[in-house]
Design a protein that fits this description.
heterodimer; A: about 850 residues; mainly beta; 16-stranded antiparallel β-barrel; 15-stranded antiparallel sheet; 7 helices; 46 strands; B: about 70 residues; mainly alpha; 2 helices
Chain lengths: ~850, ~70
C-alpha cells in the first residue's frame, strides 16, 4: 500500500508526466499505465463471457508465455446403493494442459497462440430408469434395465419383487453408467490483431480434435475506446463447425435402438452428424469512478444440426392403455432404450454484468458478477459469482471465490419417458417410433433442473519480476434441491467434483528489460550456456550463478510404425501370429504407436556448485491397430468388451495425463580450461497413472502414462568448447527402485550413452550432430489384473532392446531485443540400427524441441 | 426464452450505464490499474473453469467460439 502522503506526491508527479508514455512498473502504478485499464478490463470480460468467441489480444502483456496444468475429479454418484467398486466403475477424471504464448510486433500487432490438451476417462451416466426396472446382471459387475417392469396404470409408480417374493415399490430413478476408456482432445488456436490508438480489431481461428468430435472455428473481435478511455465498446462474432463421428456404445450394442435418430445405421455402427454454431457478442465497459468498473455484455448463439449427445440414451416406458390390470392394480410396462433426440436448432441468449470494486482499507478488489441465460429449449439459468482478490506481502495474492448456478430443465428433459401406448411395429417387424407422442426426448442431466454451488481459492506468487506462479482449487456440488425456486431433479443425480490447477506465467518483456538494465549481466546470460548440448540431451547444463532461475519447456514426439521386427530381422504377419503372443496366437498388432511428452523444466541454483531441478510432465499416447493376416478367429468373452476391430479396419486407443515427476540435483565435479563435468542424481516419483484401462482391461504396457515405480535417474555429463566448436558426452541411466508397481510389473532399466559436436554457424545459431546408444531391458513381471492379450504389445518380453540413433539439431539464442535471453532448440533423432527384444513395430524416430530462459 | 418484459429493463439498465458517469482523470486511475482490479485477474484458470462448466451445465453448453471440443460425455 502506498501511504497517503506518498500518494499526494505521486499524483502531483503523475499530473506532470501524464502526457508522456511510460513503461509500466507494477509496484508503482502511474498515470499512463492507467490508460490501458479499460482495454485490459474489457478483454478480460470477453474472456469470461460464454457465447463469445474470443479472447482479444490483451493490451497489457506484450510478450508472455504460460503453462497450466489442471486436474478434474468427480466423486461417485449414488447408484441405488451399489458401489463403484462392485460395478467396476471409476468416477470421471480429466487431466488438462494448456500452453499459451503472446507477442507484439511493431508495437501494434498482437499475436496469440494457444495449445490445449485434455485427457479424460471414467464412468458417465448413459441413461436413467426407475430402480424397479434395474437389475444386476447375473455375471455381476454391471447393471441392466429389464425389458418389462410392473407399474401402475399411470406410470408414476414402479414395483418389483424382493428376495422374499414380496412386491415392493421402487420408483426412484437410478442412473445406468458406462465406462469410457481414456480419450484425448487437442486444440490449437491462433489470433492476430491490430491496435490503433482507440480501436482494436482481430481475427482468429483454431481446430479441436478428438476421435469422435472434430471442430474448427473462426472468429473476429473488435474494441473501441472512447470518452477518454473511460468507456469501451466491444463486439465479436464466431463460427464453429463440428463433425461428430462416434461408435455405438460398445457395452450396450444390442440394447440401444438408434432408429429414433437414423432409419439405418451404417454397418460399421458409426454415428455421424454435423453441427454449426454462430455466436455474436456485444459488450460495454465503463469506469464508474476512481475505484469502480462495470462491465456488461449481451451474447447470442444460434446452433443447428446434430445437437444430440451420441452417448446419451432415453428410456421409453410403454404402457398399453388396453392392458388389463392384475389384482394389485398393476400392469406390465415395456421398456426400450433409444438414442436421445433433440431439436435441430437452438437459440441462446445471455446477458452478463460484473462490478469490480477496489476496497481501499484492504488494498483488495472484489468482483461481483451475474449472468442470465435463456434458450428456446426451455432452459433459464442464473449464475452469481463473487471473488475477493487480496494481495498480501512479498508478492503473494490470495483469492477466495464463490459461485452459484441454477437452471430450469429443458422442455423435453425427463429422467425417463412414460409413453401411454403399446409398442408399435413396422411392416418388417422393427419397433416403430414414428407415432411417439413426443418429438424430442433427452435424459441428459445437463438439461435437468438443478443448482450448483462452488467455492474455491487461488493463491498467486510473483516469483521474480515477470514470473508468476498460480495454484487454484475449487470444489463443486451439483444438486437438484439447489435449484432456485425448487422443483429440481431428485437426489439420485447429485454429484460433486473438484478442480485443481497450477500455472506458471513468464513475462518475457519484463525479463528482457531486466537484462537490458544490467548489460554486463545480459552479455553473461547470452553466452553463459555456450556449452549446452543438442535439444534431445537432458541434464546437459548447470546454472552458473547463485540464485539463478531457469524456466524451460521440452516437447518430445516419438513414433513407431511400418514393419515388424524380431531382434534385427523383419518378420511377417504369420510369424507374429505364431510366436509373439505365446502361448496364444496373436490376432492383431500396432499399425502406429505415437508418444508425445510436454515437460516443464524448472531449475534453481542455491549455489554455483549445485543446481536443483523439478520436472513435471504431461504425456499422451495413441495406438492404432490392424488385424494380422493369417490370424485365427478367436471368440473370447473378454475380447467381446474390447472394441479392437480385429480384421475389420483400424481401431485405436489414446491415453494421456500427468506423467511421472522428476526431482534432480546437479553437482559440479570439475571445471577448468573450458572443460566441465557434472553429476546429476535424480528421482522420478510415480505420479503418472498406470491404471489406464478399457472396459476393465489394462491397456498395453506402452500405453500407461507413468512407470508406476520410484526410479533412480543418475547421469554424468562432460561439455567443452573451443572457438566456434563445442562438444560433449553423457552417460545416463534409469534404475527402477521397485521390482513391481501396483499393477504388477516394472518397466525395464535403461542405460544410454551419447556424444555430440556442434558448430556456431552464426553468433545466434548452432548446428549439432550426435550419436546415441540406448539399452533398455524388457518389462519385468506382468499385469496382475485382466488385460488385453491379442497383440505383441500385451507381452512384457516385447519391450526394450538395443538402439543406435543419430541426432541432427539446431539451436538458436536470442542475443538482443525483446526476446533476449530465450533459447530455442530442435533435434531429430534418426534410428540407425535397432535390435528389438521380442516382436516390435519399427521405430521411426524422435523429435525434441525445447525453449528456455534463465534469469 | 427471455421474457418480453425484461427487454425494456435491460435496455433501461444499459442506458443508465451509458449516461452520467463521473469523470475520472488519468492521474486518478491508480487503483484501477492495480492487478487485483483486472476484470479477470486469472484468465488461464477462468478458461479452464469455463471449459469444465460448459461441459457440465446446460446454460453454457455448446457455445461457439470457445471453440470446439466436446469433452462432453
Amino acid at each position: 500500500m502506498i501511504s497517503s502522503k506518498l500518494k499526494v506526491q505521486y499524483s502531483a508527479i503523475a499530473k506532470k508526466l501524464a502526457p508522456m508514455r511510460f513503461v509500466s512498473r507494477r509496484e508503482q502504478p502511474r498515470a499512463a499505465e492507467t490508460a490501458q485499464v479499460a482495454l485490459k478490463a474489457l478483454s478480460a470480460a470477453a474472456l469470461a463471457l460464454p457465447g463469445v468467441a474470443s479472447q482479444p489480444a490483451k493490451a497489457d502483456d506484450n510478450n508472455q508465455v504460460s503453462v497450466q496444468y489442471g486436474y478434474y475429479q468427480e466423486g461417485e454418484r449414488n447408484l441405488a446403493g451399489h458401489s463403484y467398486n462392485e460395478l467396476k466403475l471409476k468416477p470421471i477424471r480429466a487431466d488438462n494442459q494448456q500452453l499459451s504464448a503472446k507477442t507484439t510486433f511493431a508495437d501494434r500487432i498482437k499475436l496469440a497462440l494457444n495449445f490445449t490438451q485434455d485427457t479424460w476417462s471414467g464412468a458417465t451416466p448413459i441413461t436413467t430408469a426407475p430402480e424397479a426396472a434395474m437389475t444386476l446382471l447375473s455375471s455381476g459387475a454391471s447393471m441392466a434395465i429389464q425389458s418389462g417392469v410392473l407399474s401402475n396404470k399411470q406410470g408414476t409408480k414402479f414395483y418389483n419383487y424382493d428376495s422374499n417374493g414380496r412386491l415392493k415399490e421402487h420408483s426412484q430413478s437410478v442412473h445406468m453408467m458406462a465406462m469410457a476408456s481414456p480419450e484425448t482432445r487437442k486444440q490449437g488456436d491462433a489470433r492476430i490483431g491490430y491496435e490503433w490508438d482507440h480501436v482494436m480489431l482481430d481475427v482468429g481461428g483454431g481446430v479441436s480434435s478428438e476421435h469422435d468430435y472434430d471442430s474448427s472455428f473462426l472468429s473476429s473481435n473488435g474494441r473501441y475506446d472512447f470518452n477518454n478511455k473511460l468507456s469501451t465498446l466491444s463486439w465479436g462474432f464466431s463460427y464453429t463447425d463440428s463433425q461428430i463421428k462416434s461408435q455405438k456404445i460398445p457395452q450396450y450394442q444390442g440394447y440401444i435402438d438408434y432408429r429414433t435418430l437414423f432409419d439405418n445405421l451404417p454397418a460399421n455402427g458409426l454415428i455421424t452428424g454435423q453441427r454449426e454454431d454462430w455466436a455474436a457478442h456485444l459488450g460495454f465497459n465503463q469506469v464508474l469512478g476512481k475505484n469502480t468498473l462495470l462491465d456488461s455484455g449481451i451474447n447470442y448463439t444460434y446452433s443447428s444440426g446434430f445437437l444430440e449427445n451420441p452417448y446419451k440414451v432415453a428410456e421409453l416406458i410403454f404402457i398399453d392403455p388396453r392392458q388389463a390390470a392384475n389384482p394389485n392394480g398393476l400392469v406390465l410396462a415395456q421398456t426400450q432404450g433409444v438414442a436421445e433426440r433433440r431439436p435441430n436448432f437452438r437459440n441462446q441468449l445471455g446477458f452478463s454484468t460484473q462490478l469490480t470494486q477496489y476496497v481501499k482499507p484492504f488494498d483488495a478488489a472484489v468482483h461481483l458478477g451475474y449472468h442470465f441465460f435463456a434458450d428456446d429449449w426451455g432452459i433459464n439459468a442464473h449464475t452469481f459469482e463473487a471473488d475477493w482478490v487480496q494481495p498480501i506481502s512479498n508478492g503473494w495474492t490470495v483469492t477466495p471465490r464463490f459461485r452459484f448456478y441454477s437452471q430450469s430443465a429443458a422442455s423435453f428433459y425427463s429422467p425417463y419417458f412414460v409413453i401411454p401406448q403399446a409398442i408399435s411395429y413396422t411392416k418388417d417387424f422393427k419397433k416403430d417410433y414414428s407415432k411417439l407422442p413426443i418429438a424430442n426426448f433427452s435424459s441428459d442431466q445437463r438439461l435437468s433442473g438443478y443448482g450448483a454451488l462452488s467455492a474455491g481459492v487461488t493463491i498467486s506468487r510473483q516469483l521474480a519480476k515477470g514470473v508468476n506462479l498460480d495454484a487454484g482449487f475449487e470444489y463443486y456440488t451439483h444438486q437438484g434441491n439447489l435449484k432456485l425456486g425448487g422443483g429440481g431433479e431428485s437426489s439420485y443425480a447429485d454429484y460433486s467434483s473438484y478442480l485443481a490447477n497450477a500455472s506458471i506465467k513468464v513475462d518475457l518483456s519484463a525479463l528482457a528489460n531486466k537484462f537490458a538494465n544490467s548489460s554486463s549481466h545480459a552479455n553473461h546470460k547470452a553466452h553463459a550456456h555456450h556449452h549446452s548440448a543438442p535439444a534431445g540431451v537432458m541434464y546437459d547444463h548447470m546454472l552458473t550463478e547463485t540464485d539463478e532461475i531457469m524456466v524451460g519447456y521440452r516437447y518430445m514426439y516419438g513414433a513407431q510404425y511400418g514393419n515388424n521386427f524380431n531382434g534385427s530381422t523383419k518378420v511377417s504377419d504369420l510369424d507374429i501370429v505364431n510366436s509373439a503372443c505365446t502361448p496364444r496366437p496373436c490376432t492383431e498388432t500396432a499399425s502406429r504407436h505415437t508418444m508425445q511428452m510436454h515437460m516443464l523444466e524448472l531449475m534453481y541454483a542455491p549455489s554455483d556448485w549445485l543446481t536443483l531441478m523439478l520436472m513435471p510432465q504431461f504425456m499422451d499416447m495413441s495406438m492404432s491397430f490392424r488385424g494380422l493376416n493369417g490370424a485365427p478367429v478367436i471368440t473370447d468373452p473378454q475380447d467381446g468388451m474390447h472394441h479392437h476391430a480385429t480384421g475389420s479396419g483400424d481401431a485405436s486407443h489414446t491415453t494421456g495425463g500427468i506423467g511421472d515427476t522428476g526431482f534432480f540435483g546437479m553437482f559440479k565435479l570439475f571445471e577448468k580450461n573450458n572443460h566441465h563435468v557434472h553429476l546429476t542424481l535424480g528421482l522420478s516419483a510415480p505420479t503418472g497413472d498406470i491404471n489406464q484401462k478399457m472396459a476393465g482391461n489394462y491397456l498395453h504396457y506402452g500405453m500407461q502414462v507413468g512407470s508406476g515405480t520410484w526410479d533412480f535417474k543418475p547421469s554424468i555429463t562432460y561439455t567443452s568448447s573451443y572457438d566456434r566448436w563445442s562438444w560433449g558426452g553423457q552417460v545416463n541411466g534409469i534404475q527402477r527402485l521397485q521390482d513391481r508397481n501396483s499393477a504388477g510389473y516394472a518397466l525395464g532399466n535403461v542405460l544410454q550413452s551419447t556424444a555430440w559436436g556442434s558448430y556456431d554457424v552464426f553468433d545466434w545459431l548452432s548446428a549439432s550432430v550426435r550419436g546415441v546408444h540406448s539399452l533398455q531391458q524388457a518389462v519385468q513381471g506382468e499385469f496382475n489384473g485382466p488385460h488385453d492379450n491379442s497383440s505383441p504389445m500385451d507381452y512384457p518380453a516385447n519391450y526394450g532392446g538395443s538402439f543406435w540413433d543419430m541426432g541432427f539439431g539446431l539451436k538458436t539464442k536470442v542475443l538482443q531485443g525483446q526476446f533476449q535471453g530465450n533459447t530455442f532448440a530442435v533435434e531429430w533423432l534418426q534410428p540407425i540400427h535397432d535390435r528389438y527384444n521380442g516382436y516390435q513395430v519399427e521405430r521411426q524416430g524422435e523429435l525434441n524441441a525445447t525453449w528456455s530462459i534463465a534469469f | 426464452m427471455i421474457s418480453k418484459k425484461s427487454v425494456p429493463a435491460i435496455l433501461a439498465f444499459s442506458a443508465v450505464l451509458l449516461s452520467g458517469c463521473s469523470e475520472v482523470s488519468p492521474w486518478e486511475r491508480g487503483n484501477l490499474a492495480k492487478p487485483q482490479m483486472a476484470i479477470d485477474p486469472t484468465p488461464a484458470q477462468t478458461g479452464l473453469r469455463d471449459h469444465v462448466y460448459s461441459s457440465r451445465e446446460g446454460a453454457s453448453m455448446g457455445h461457439a467460439g470457445v471453440g470446439g471440443g466436446c469433452g462432453c460425455n
